[in-house]
Structures are given as C-alpha cells and as structure tokens.
Specification:
The structure holds 2 protein chains of 2 kinds. Chain A is of the alpha+beta class. Chain A is built from 11 helices and 8 strands. A 4-stranded mixed β-sheet of chain A has the order 1-4-5-8. In chain A, strands 2-3-7-6 form a 4-stranded antiparallel β-sheet, with no helix packed on it. Chain B contains 11 helices and 8 strands. Bound molecules: flavin-adenine dinucleotide.
Chain lengths: 384, 324
C-alpha cells in the first residue's frame, strides 16, 4: 500500500537538523568553498558538531561511529544539508561513498584507521579519478603506480579534483597493469595528501576559487596497507563508488527550497512578475517533486539491495536537468540581482546567483548527462 | 530579396575583428575584469581608431548595418565594452542604457562613467541621476547600478536600435561559442576517437548551430525593418522579438557549448566560460526571458507583427496592396 507520509523519526530528524543549521550556520552561508576562509571553518566546525551528536554518519553501523539509522533518515539528512548549502562542506564525500566503499572493500586495519575519523567529521577526502585524457573515458587513465619494497610510488596527474587543496586523503585510481589494460589494470590507493611529492594547483573557474584543482604526483608514497581491495581490481570498486555518488547529492532539495522561498523573498514584487514566469515557477515546483520521488525510488531499491544502475542514471538525468531548469527560473525571478551583489543581507538573491553558477556544472560533474543517457539506453535496448 | 549585409558592413566587421584579435581578443576581457574601471582606456581607443563613433546608425541603412557588423565582431571576442550602448546614444549623450522598469536598476556597462541617457524596454525615457561602479561579481563585473528620475518622453527608435545592437553583440558571442565548440570536439578525444565522431555530440552541435543560425537571420531582418521608415509602428515589436529569440538562442547555444566542453568549459582559462559569464548582463537585463516574452506579447497586440498571414499595420501596408 502506498504511504508517502514521512515516518515520525524522519520528521524529528528534519526538525533537529534545521535547528542545528539555524543555530550554527550564518544565514548568508553559501557553502564552504567561497573566497571567505571563514566558510570552510564553519563547515569543519559544523561537521564535528554533527559527529558529536552521531548525526554525521547516520546510517553507518555504530561500531564505526555511526548512528545506525534508516536510509530514509539518511535521505532526509542529505536533503536538509544540500538545501542548506551543504554546511558539512566536502565532508559529504567521505560519508556518502568513501565510507560505504571502505566498509565493503576495506580490511579491518583500513576500516579501523579511516572510518572513525570520517564518522567524526574531522577528515576531508578528495576523489582522484579524472585526468586530462581520461574524463568520460575513465578507463583511459594513466597515472601510474610503481611497485617498491613495502608499497607503491605514484606518478601522474589528476584534474578537476574537488577540494584537493584542503583534503587530507585522496581516494585515488592509478594504473597498475599495462598501459593498454584499461579496466583490468586499475587499483585503488588511499593516499595521504601531506607529502612533498604531491602538488595541488587550484583551477580558477566560474565555480569559485577553491573548488577544482589539478593534482600532480611525482613519486608520492602509498604503503601496502593503503591499497584498497586487490591489485588490478579497482574497476569493480569504481562502479560501486559511482552508484553511491549518483544518489549522493540531493540537488532537488535546494531547488525545492529556493523555489518555495521565492514568493516570500520577493514580497509584494511577486505579484508583479509576468504570468509566464509564475507558470514556469509552478512547473518547476512540480518537477522538483517528481524528481524527489525518482530519488526515493532509487533509495528504496538500494534499501532492498536491488539497486539498478539504470535507475540511478534515470534519476541523475532528471535531477541535473532540474537543477538547470530551476536555475533559469530563479534568475528570471530575481532579475538584476541575479548578477550578484556584495550585500550579504540579500540572502535569497545571492543563493540564486550561486545556484545558477553551480548548476551549469551539474550535467558534467560525477559523470556527464550523456554518460547517464548511455547507461540508461544500454540497459533499455539490452546492450552489454 | 537580399539577405547579405552590405560590403561596407562586412569590411568593417572584419576590421573590428582583426583589430580586437590583434589586441588580445578574449584576453582583453580577461584583463578588463581585473580592473573593470580601466577598460574604457584599454578598449576605447581601439574602437576610436577604427572610426566607429563617426557612424550614425539611424542616418541610413548602410551605417546601421555597419554598426551591427561591428557589434557582432565585438561579440566574437565577448568584448566588455558598451559598443551597442554608444552607437545608440541619443543627441546630447555619449551612450544609452536600457534599464529595468521594476526591481533592481542595473544595466550592462553602467559602471563606466559616460554621460548616459536611459530608456526602458517600452521606449520610455528617464534621466540618469547617477551610476555606481562595477558590481565586482562573477556575473556582473561589467554592469553597474543606475539611478533614474521621472519619465521624460519616449525614444522608441533608439530603444529599438539599442535592443537590436545588443543582440548583434550577443549573436557574435554565440557564433564564436559555436565555433570554439566545434573546434574543441574535433580535437578532444575520448574512447579512442574525437568527440565529433559520436552521434549524440553531432546532434548537440546541430541544435546549437540551428539556434545560432536562426538568430542570425532574424537579426538581419530586424536590422532591415529598423531601417524602413514606414515600419515605425513595428520597430519596437521587432526589436523585442529579436531580444526574445536572442535569449532563447543564448540558452540553447551556451548550454550546449558548456556541455560539450565538459569540465574544461568552466575553467577561466577556457574562453567558453567567459562567453557564458560575460554575456549574462545583456541576457538578464533589463528583462529575462519571461519578462521579455511578456513585453513582446504586450507590444505585439493582435496586429503588430508582420508575418505572411498577419494583417499589416496600416502604416506598413502600401496603397492598394494585398490585405490578406
Ligand atoms: C564541478 C566539478 C567537480 C568535479 N570534481 C571531480 C572530482 O572531485 N574528482 C574527479 O576525479 N573528477 C571530478 N570532476 C570531473 C568529472 O568527473 C568530469 O568532468 C566528467 O567525468 C567528464 O569528463 P570531461 O570533463 O573530461 O569531459 P569529456 O569526457 O571530455 O566530455 C566532453 C563532452 O563529450 C561528451 N562525450 C564524451 N564521450 C561521449 C560519448 N561516448 N558519447 C556521447 N558524448 C560523449 C560528454 O558527455 C561531454 O558532453 C569534476 C567536474 C566538475 C565539473
């Protein structure tokens, strides 16, 4: 029987999270990676607060510092956090997929060393997958791991690595097979970023200064204990990672929040907007509801261990396009304020401008729209 | 029927293109962003030397076409300079600003200290009381606040001219974004071949191209219409219609240009990210898509749009000509 009412514990959690955000996050906060270093501070502090209250790694087993909650609570957490401009900063990566992947593929030593700090919210990870020649075609990656006594030396270059400047650890893919081995010669390394043989160069972009980076490895060291899974068995892990990552960000929640906020933010000016814009706004709200329900379809399937990557792809297609549709509607609603303002009292307008810039990348980051389409299409027409 | 710009216009467009390319092209805008106030001195003299400000776009069609070709060439380098605004300057001022009628009053290039006049989309004129500096934001480096006074008449033709020339500038941006994207997908390889070999990429390119080409044709038509004295009743409607198409085309082209560039398209070192950001003021101001649509509906009424089967306004219909 259908039942879309939220369970009491999920509602309670939402209220608790909103109260925490209200208490600890300034209203003008727009994410951890602005030009203001305070924002990163805020995110780190907030992550620790969540960690202390066992709200951070909500669905993780308690033995790893988690809260043992349901995946619906986890979903609510994702929604509340993304809607509040992700006050956990980059921490969500560790939580959403690095942790779960370590639980699945890590040995006991790795789990003991890496999971509790993630659950406590005090360590940042980055994802070292993409390379200049390996974007959509990830199996073309060339960063090389060379065997030495007791471990591996990493040589090569990663690019578009989010948060690499602040990350303490990197979940890195490197080639351990022959240059032509593609998917069969990739291994996952857990790399300590604090080494002289790693250089991070920020890439100035329309997303802001501190988001994406190039990372150069000139013989960085990874001891054997930080090889995840078997040698040359990285691709299977990658596929799991991407599946987790795809449902990771509840983009629809921020869309929903900003759209719902718009009439109040505009006040009397709302009534003066052209009818066509009211229509687009209403339509966008309906779209965010249906996209949210697509997300729930994926969560429910994952809960039952029936996650089909094609469903995740369908959701990702819908949610990334929603992000861009909503960005355009909101920009029209705020008019000239969409060009940005240094007036931090203009909270809604600044959030809209920020949303527009980030939404441009939503159909590219973590696998492009076209790759999602290919994944879904291949499933539909039975290729592979 | 002739759908080619005059030779003079084409030659001027090429001269502007060459001059700007020699001066650094998009890098001029990169430099200008570091110090927006300095761009008048950085870019102004280049255009001055080309004799652009001797052109009187409303004097005759040859000059109008020349101004449009210059704007399009400037757009190809996403030039951060009020070229359309200066061409549209009414008597006694150095430039014309198109300001929103409601909400925040900001306009492209209002941050530059010219002696400005201002109009709204309807042609309503307002005196400029003061202007502010650059917004200093990622999307608004080349825009500024404008304080205007009580309405003081109408400037329909200048307004139509400004809207039209801004769209010619935008057309240049979009054509260049399309060309860069084509180059990129022919060079970038994934899965062992160039992106251009993938059918889905080809379709994306075609949609981008159709959007830009449609805009180019409409832009030429609108220019011609603006040069016809007996089109006076439809000047503004035609210009607004061009703006509507320009906004739609910009969305269609820039979205696809970004998409085909992948992550590379967001990096400051890639020109496409500049086309995307720097075209924002003209695309959002003085009215976004829905507001522009509403303005077109309002201006079009039921008989102010001349297609094959729409009745011509009486002023446009020659004596004894076919009515329906
Ligand atoms: C904001 C942001 C953050 C990111 N963070 C990280 C990170 O933390 N770590 C990391 O490793 N990477 C990160 N990335 C990189 C991201 O994973 C890649 O951008 C993405 O995989 C696409 O690769 P690419 O940019 O090289 O584009 P390309 O693969 O070069 O693609 C360019 C265009 O061609 C299309 N295309 C490619 N192949 C085909 C095909 N076979 N059929 C049809 N179309 C095709 C693509 O869909 C796209 O439209 C980030 C990217 C962004 C934008």
């Amino acid at each position: 029987m259908l039942d879309y009412a939220e369970a009491d514990e999920v509602q309670v959690l939402r209220h608790r999270l909103r109260a925490l955000v209200e208490e600890h996050i300034p209203k003008s906060y727009l994410g951890a990676f602005t030009d203001n270093p305070n924002d990163l501070e805020i995110a780190q502090r907030f992550s620790r607060i969540l960690g202390e209250q066992r709200l951070f790694a909500l669905t993780w087993p308690e033995s790893f510092g988690g809260g043992g909650a349901s995946s619906w609570e986890q979903t609510a957490l994702r929604e509340e956090m993304w809607a509040a401009h992700e006050p956990r900063g980059a921490q969500y990566m560790g939580l959403n997929w690095i942790g779960p992947v370590l639980m699945r593929y890590g040995n006991e030593d790795q789990q003991q060393r890496h999971l509790p700090p993630i659950a406590a919210g005090d360590v940042l990870w980055c994802q070292g997958f993409s390379e200049p020649e390996a974007g959509s075609d990830l199996p073309a990656l060339r960063t090389k791991a060379v065997r030495e006594e007791g471990g591996w030396r990493i040589h090569g270059q990663k690019v578009w690595t989010s948060y690499a400047e602040m990350a303490r650890w990197c979940f890195l893919l490197a080639r351990t097979g022959t240059p032509e081995s593609r998917k069969d010669g990739i291994t996952v390394f857990l790399v300590d970023m604090e080494q002289a043989e790693i250089e991070v160069r920020p890439i100035p972009s329309m997303l802001g200064r501190h988001h994406i980076n190039e990372v150069y490895f000139t013989g960085a060291w990874v001891p054997d204990r930080d090889v995840l899974g078997g040698i040359n068995e990285g691709w299977k892990i990658v596929n799991d990672v991407l599946a987790f990552e795809r449902i990771g960000i509840a983009r629809y929640a921020r869309c929903d929040k900003l759209l719902s906020w718009a009439p109040r933010a505009l006040g009397e000016a709302w009534a003066d907007l052209p009818q066509g814009l009211h229509q687009r706004w209403a339509k966008a709200l309906v779209h965010s509801r249906s996209v949210r329900l697509l997300a729930y379809k994926v969560v429910a399937a994952q809960d039952q261990g029936l996650l089909d990557p094609a469903d995740a792809a369908a959701y990702r297609i819908a949610v990334t396009l929603l992000d861009q549709e909503v960005a355009e509607v909101l920009m029209d609603i705020v008019g000239g304020w969409g060009l940005g303002t240094e007036d931090t009292e203009r909270i809604f307008e600044r959030a809209v401008e920020d949303h527009w810039r980030y939404a441009q990348a939503s159909t590219v980051a973590s696998g492009t729209l076209e790759m999602q389409r290919l994944a879904l299409a291949n499933r539909l027409v039975g290729k592979r | 029927m002739k759908n080619q710009l005059s030779d003079e216009a084409v030659a001027l467009g090429e001269a502007v293109d060459d001059t700007l390319a020699a001066a650094g092209g998009v890098d001029l805008t990169r430099r200008a962003e570091a110090d927006p106030a300095a761009r008048a001195a950085l870019i102004g003299p280049l255009l001055e030397e080309l004799g652009l400000w001797e052109i009187e776009p409303l004097a005759d069609q040859v000059q109008l076409e020349a101004a449009a070709a210059a704007c399009r060439a400037a757009g190809r380098h996403v030039l951060a300079y009020p070229i359309a605004e200066r061409f549209a300057a009414p008597e006694g001022s150095e430039g014309l600003l198109l300001v929103p009628s409601t909400g925040r009053r900001v306009a492209p290039h209002a941050d530059l200290g010219l002696s400005w006049s201002a109009v709204e989309l309807t042609g309503l004129q307002r005196p400029v009381l003061s202007t502010g500096g650059s917004l200093h934001t990622k999307l608004g480096s080349f825009a500024g606040e404008v304080q205007v006074g009580e309405a003081c008449g109408t400037l329909e033709r200048e307004t139509a001219l400004l809207i039209t020339l801004q769209m010619w500038w935008l057309l240049g941006v979009l054509e260049r974004a399309g060309a860069d994207t084509l180059t990129y997908v022919k060079e970038r390889e994934q899965f062992g071949r160039t992106l251009a070999k993938f059918q889905s990429v080809q379709f994306t390119l075609t949609d981008l191209t159709v959007a830009a080409q449609s805009l180019a044709e409409l832009a030429k038509y609108t220019l011609w219409s603006l040069a016809q004295d007996d089109h006076e009743p439809v000047w503004l409607t035609d210009a607004l219609s061009l703006r509507l198409s320009g906004l739609e085309a910009a969305d269609a082209v820039m979205r696809r240009a970004h998409q085909l560039h992948g992550a590379m398209g967001f990096a400051d070192e890639t020109n496409v990210s500049w086309y995307s950001r720097i075209s924002q003021p003209v695309r959002r101001l003085p009215a976004g898509l829905s507001q522009t649509e509403a303005a077109v509906v309002e201006s079009m009424g039921t008989d102010r749009f001349t297609n094959l089967f729409t009745p011509l306004p009486s002023a446009v219909r020659p004596e004894g000509a076919l009515a329906h």
